[in-house]
Amino acid sequence: MTPDAFIAKWQANTRNEAAASKEHFLDLCALLGVPTPNSDATGATYAFEKGVRKAAGGGGWADVWKRGCFGWEYKSRGGDLERAHDQLLRYAGALENPPLLISSDMDRIIVRTNWTNAVSDRRDLALEDLRDPAVRGLLKACWTDPDRWRPATTRQALTEQAAGDFAELARRLRARGHDPQAVAHFVNRLVFCLFADDVGLLPDRLLSGMLDYATRAPASFAEAAAELFRAMRSRGGRIGFQPVPWFNGGLFDDDTALPLDAADIALLTGAAALDWAEIDPSILGTLFERGLDPDKRSQLGAHYTDREKIGLLVEAVVVRPLLVEWGATRARIAAALEARAALLREARAPAMAEAAVLAGAEAITAESRAARTSLRRAADRRARKMAELLEEAGGAYRAFVDRLRGFRVLDPACGSGNFLYLSLLALKDLEQRVGIEAEVLGLEPALPMIGPEAVLGIEVNPFAAELARVSVWIGHIQWARRNGYPPPSDPVLRTLDTIQCRDAVLTAEGAAAAWPAANAIVGNPPFLGGKVQRRALGDAYLDRLFGAYAGRVPPEADFVCYWLEQAREAIAAGRTERAGLVVTNSVRGGASRKVLERIRETGAIYAAWSDEPWTLDGAAVRVSLLCFAAGRDGPAQLDGEAVPEIFADLTAGASDLTAARRLPENAGVCFMGTTKVGPFDIDAATARAWLALPTNANGRPNADVVRPWRNGLHVMRRVEDAWIVDFGATMTEAEAAFYAAPFGHVSRKVKAARGEAARDSAAQPWWRHGRPRPQMRRALCGLGRYIATPAVAKHRLFVWLSAAVVPDHQLLVTTRDDDTTFGILHSRFHEIWALRQGSWMGVGNDSRYTPSTTFETFPFPDGLTPNIPAATTAADPRAQRIAAAARALVEARDRWLNPPDLIERLPEVVPGFPDRLVPKDAAAAALLKRRTLTALYNTRGTPEGAWLDGLHRALDAAVAEAYGWPADIPEADALSRLLALNHARAGSAAASGPGARPATVED
């Protein structure tokens, strides 16, 4: 068909939709040269009249549908194409969310885009437009290449731009001295007004007109804005003669408006030009919070968590369990309606029999009357049963709809509302889906009624709490528009006092805070490691917190654990069905894991993602996502895979290493290094100058207290020339004062830095390190060297350090000097144990090693345990083979790190201190910078690291032989045997007296 023929035929058309729509579509296919629905005989991917006949009469979901391309709805000439579009929106989910929604009255074709994360676009085509080959090509792409219609602007990019504009406006207002909270409240109102203007809630683009006028008269803006807010606040509001809908909601609780200057108006006018109808509430709150809260200004432009990650938890905690319930309900409905249909089919036979009785009887006899009566009684029984079955089906549907409408989701750390918004959308989408599926079964679907009251929030930050309400309101209205329903009215905004601005874990009186009852708990509680909580929260708060949760959450646990414990208790008490929270992935180990163990004691972890990228305050971090309930049906899901159960360390398999216990034979051997708590470190030049001074008045050299110092970075990178002043663990102030130069430095630097605490020298000797580790020092006595490993590192490896070196708290010290112990610790068996027993830190997802949970639980080979002196095991052939392999590894590794042709070894100024390693020249220095242990171990598994792999294999084989295992034993089997050995040793120790203890974290 030619364009002229098509246009002429359909300009002359006078038939209605039902008579002409199919012919119009077939002619359009002929014009464009695309297949018709008749090409798909099954209708599985391309069909006329896709969907069902509605229970209330009328057509189905779409007049034409092509999978992955479009849904197409017709109306008669001059018909309401907005209603056609609304129907497509309502059933978009049932149509598999086609990217294009097309409506036509045979004079016009309106194409609207429907991609999830793209700004919606619209194109109106008239009959005459089809003469243009370019227009025909674009229309043909609806069949052949729908992506040609995809808008370039994403909702994310639009929201980022809007947030940037308003962040600048907020900055300008604060700079003029306005209160930050007043600025935030004012900006939130403007944000919602711009949205309301673009979606038609404000009549005649009221705000746009106000801005146009203010461009010419900036001083008028504050008064005009106040008048608008006042009109929006109450029912029956007006601007002049123009009625304004009643908005309410608390956002327009007064008419306060801040004055704007010409530059502010220009900024706001530019922002108003954006398509606010398409703003993305899932990131709106986060981005605007950064702009409105002065404390978060530095995070502008930083990343934020995408909705897909949040969706993992919402799906697992809210959607999937409700879909399981709906599946069972739908099956009952289908069974009842099928039984009713069977009775209806049966009813036809008696009706025919009655007709035959009447037709065959020459006269009404007693016998014919009896037959008719019997048939009618049977028909009445069937009718009653059919009515009962219909009521049973309808009752089951209504009961489930009531369940959905009463479902509540709580985010007890809701921030600016990301989880709340996506939870609300999930519930509304589910309500819509249930209605459509009920309609397919033959029931009248209920209108969607779920609203913002379905989501509950607790948030301590007032900036974020109000943004959460705005995000939820906007999301609710957007859902109605996108699904073909009118927006809420009278009032537009329901009051959201369900989002409370308060502390979620502690009351002002120091008790554990109460949470409102909810069916599900989701969220992303604040991340604060156990070591930084006191600095961030303050001593008084933290002391009250520890008191309120004594016996429930260990004091060393991450802050997020208080939310986990609250959610666990709510589930155990029956106030909540399920919870899903984002937590630091370090909760898998250490003190934090105790809270996960409590969750397993009273319930089950039924889904988890053990290690995921996340965004915290604009920075990339690694997190775990876990979902738990009172119990579970069927297998759990770990990292997307079905597993029998999930352990407290968020692993699965045959061995639950969280059940490992501390072994007495390992006690008192592994320690954390010293914690300075002040500027005790000094530069190398100063250190050597003090070491060269004459002996002090006590007859002792400064070498007693001026020592080489190493931390975790020194080990993993190049060894720096680092030094520290260390007065030990027992030296008194009077004794320390004899070391005049070092004492003077500490007195001036450290005493001042410690401030008020330094005045109470009895409680905190200011001249000593904050935590000088006296037990470690006693264990090191008599040793010439010790084993060290970084507390947090990408690779779990061990090094030798001279006993003269003071270890920092970022090093874990094993107080043994024998190669056998070194070799066992550096074997793959201890490494895999450490990776499972430790925790994980930072964006690099580096492993964390602890003395108690990692070292003290590890079962060494029989006869080679740390409580046996090295001299006793020296003659053991197993120990000798391990020691030889360990020495070979260390020697080769040291030659790679410090090649003799690149470095010079210079004796230190004090005999017994480790030699200085100095590059021979600048070229050597440049080469040595790249030779670090991290760089070396990054080559494992590559041809360049083959020599290192070989040395480790030899060491592993020697250690495996000591255990009596094959060298190639699989990792899972090795862990299982190690756990069994741990339990056997712990059980033996328990039988002989106190000793074996649950693993905890050293302070």
TrEMBL record:
What's the source species' lineage? Bacteria, Pseudomonadati, Pseudomonadota, Alphaproteobacteria, Acetobacterales
Keywords attached to this entry: Methyltransferase, Transferase
Full protein name: site-specific DNA-methyltransferase (adenine-specific)
Query: Where in the numbering of this chain does the MmeI-like helicase spacer domain appear?
Result: 182-252
Q: Name one GO biological process term.
A: methylation
Which species? Roseicella aquatilis
Answer yes or no on keyword Methyltransferase: yes
The UniProt catalytic activity note for this protein reads:
a 2'-deoxyadenosine in DNA + S-adenosyl-L-methionine = an N(6)-methyl-2'-deoxyadenosine in DNA + S-adenosyl-L-homocysteine + H(+)
The first-level EC class reads: transferase
Keyword match Methyltransferase: yes
EC assignment: 2.1.1.72
Q: Which residues form the MmeI-like DNA-methyltransferase domain?
A: 397-614
User: Which InterPro entries does the record cross-reference, listed alphabetically?
Assistant: MmeI_hel, MmeI_Mtase, N4_N6_ade-DNA_methylase, SAM-dependent_MTases_sf
MF term (GO), any:
site-specific DNA-methyltransferase (adenine-specific) activity
